[in-house]
Design a protein that fits this description.
10 helices; Isopropylmalate Dehydrogenase; alpha/beta; 12-stranded mixed sheet; about 35% helix; single chain
């Protein structure tokens, strides 16, 4: 039996989201069933759309739209704080649908956090933290994934000077446990192989270039290995991303943001997908922002959104 369709939240209407969703529908034509939650008046109109009140039976031959009322028209390229309530409502409806089983996964289009804060008092650091709040999840983990590589950063959006203090054994252990669990339950990998980077050049070179590997990373890996987790490392960050190395693991867990994201964006910039691990449902998102500079010009590249939809669909058990 085929999974329920994917719910797609509209994101910032002034960005490229409305263009992306039409391009994705034109590309997939029902092979990846999804519906868009937003204001039909914000769509560019390059494809037909059909308003629905339930995702139970999607129409053929038109982009299915779960309508929401927004305050005013779309103004491409200029954030609209007065439309923030609608953007938030779209996310909330998508979460409600996926948690109720009406949708098999949630794919979120890019938001503009400043517009949400100005227009609706949005207090969350970002999209992911808001989803964590709505789902009541204890902790979530960011994964960037493509067909060539999956990466998880242990520390994320903090200055490099703060990484050493933030990198604690407890944090590393939680990141590894959540990652392994998600690879099993959402990616269908029975025995995940996890490569773990060091923090320092040459993974510390036995303590000569730093002791974080010896004092923080290795004890955690040894303890989790004793429980049966398949862990490789700590590995030097400069030798773990060539093709032969990537073939030996299912995900690379790295110590800081750029250490993880530079390799995947170099390998597959247009098709990287942001996957949130630790939620009680599947959530994917394109790995880019609102792109105000090209919004409304028909220049948006849908590759990352297409990849996010297809990944969500396969994770849910659908066939592409």
């Amino acid at each position: 039996m085929s999974p329920a369709p994917i719910a797609v939240s509209c994101g910032e209407p002034a960005g490229i989201g409305p263009e992306l969703i039409e391009a994705c529908w034109r590309e997939t034509r029902g092979t990846v069933p999804f519906y868009w939650i937003g204001d039909p008046a914000h769509l560019p109109g390059t494809v037909p759309h059909a308003v629905i009140d339930t995702p139970a039976a999607l129409p053929e031959g038109a982009l299915p739209v779960m309508p929401l009322r927004f305050d005013g028209p779309r103004v491409a390229g200029t954030a609209q704080p007065h439309q923030a309530a609608g953007v938030i409502a779209s996310i909330e409806r998508g979460v409600a649908d996926v948690m109720a089983g009406r949708a098999s996964a949630l794919c979120t289009l890019p938001i503009h956090k400043q517009a949400l804060a100005e227009g609706a008092g949005f207090i969350h650091p970002g999209h992911t933290e808001f989803l964590q709040h709505l789902a009541g999840a204890e902790e979530v983990v960011m994964m960037l994934a493509s067909e060539q590589l999956r990466v998880v950063p242990v520390t994320i959006h903090i200055p490099l000077s703060q990484v050493k203090q933030a990198l604690t054994p407890a944090l590393l252990e939680r990141r590894l446990r959540i990652t392994e669990a998600a690879l099993k339950t959402q990616f269908g990998i029975a025995n995940p192989r996890i490569a773990v980077s060091g923090l320092n050049p040459h993974a510390g070179e036995g303590g000569r270039m730093g002791r974080e590997e010896i004092e923080v990373i290795v004890p955690v890996l040894d303890r989790l290995r004793s429980e049966g987790m398949d862990l490789i490392g700590p590995l030097p960050g400069d030798t773990m991303f060539h093709a032969a190395a990537r073939a030996r693991y299912d995900v690379a867990v790295c110590m800081y943001h750029d250490q993880a994201l530079i390799p995947i964006k170099t390998l597959d910039f247009d098709r990287g997908v942001n996957v949130t691990l630790g939620l009680p449902f599947i959530r994917t998102s394109p790995d880019h922002g609102t792109a105000f500079d090209i919004a409304g010009q028909g220049l948006a590249n849908p590759s990352s959104t297409l990849a996010a939809l297809r990944m969500a669909w396969t994770m849910a058990g659908g066939a592409v």
